[in-house]
Automatic annotation (TrEMBL):
It comes from Alteromonas aestuariivivens. Keywords: Stress response. InterPro entries: A-crystallin/Hsp20_dom, ACD_IbpA/B, HSP20-like_chaperone. The lineage of its organism: Bacteria, Pseudomonadati, Pseudomonadota, Gammaproteobacteria, Alteromonadales. This is Molecular chaperone. Residues 29-142 form the SHSP domain. Belongs to the small heat shock protein (HSP20) family. It comes from the Bacteria. The keyword Secreted does not apply.
Length: 147
């Protein structure tokens, strides 16, 4: 896959630097490896769940952070000196460190995270503020009263 340099376009993104950062994040996401594998589920109209397969990682090895509509999940496995003496005939369970980022939409909040049986579940919900929700206007009604 080829890499596209978007830095000359930043001069044109005056006041729209958020758009430029989204484009950069999208190109970086394409370069990520497939580790660890994950699913994104739609549980209800505005509820989602991200499930990641992180076998071998415990609660203390995983960090979950949300900043600027970006959910960052990173795993940092401490090397165990006891495992240095072990000899594997086949090692298929990867215990390498990882970092996976997800761009969250506006008004998406992380509700909970749980680690069970080697699967990390992160529940999300889109909470639309009352002012942004569509409302029905009756014909002939007055929205603003003269004071």
């Amino acid at each position: 896959m080829r890499s596209i340099d978007l830095s000359p376009l930043y001069r044109s993104f005056i006041g729209s630097d958020h758009l430029a950062s989204l484009i950069d994040a999208a190109t970086r996401a394409e370069k990520q490896s497939g580790y660890p594998p994950y699913n994104i589920e739609l549980l209800a109209d505005d509820k989602y769940r991200i499930t990641m397969a992180i076998a071998g990682f415990g609660k203390d090895d995983v960090s979950i952070e949300v900043a600027d509509n970006t959910l960052t999940i990173s795993g940092n496995k401490q090397t165990d000196n006891d495992n240095a003496d072990r000899k594997f005939l086949h090692k298929g369970i990867s215990e390498r460190n990882f970092e996976r980022k997800f761009q969250l939409g506006d008004h998406v909040k992380v509700l909970a995270a749980d680690l069970e049986n080697g699967l990390l579940h992160i529940d999300l919900e889109r909470v639309i503020p009352e002012a942004k929700k569509p409302r029905k206007i009756e014909i002939g009604s007055k929205l603003f009263e003269n004071q």
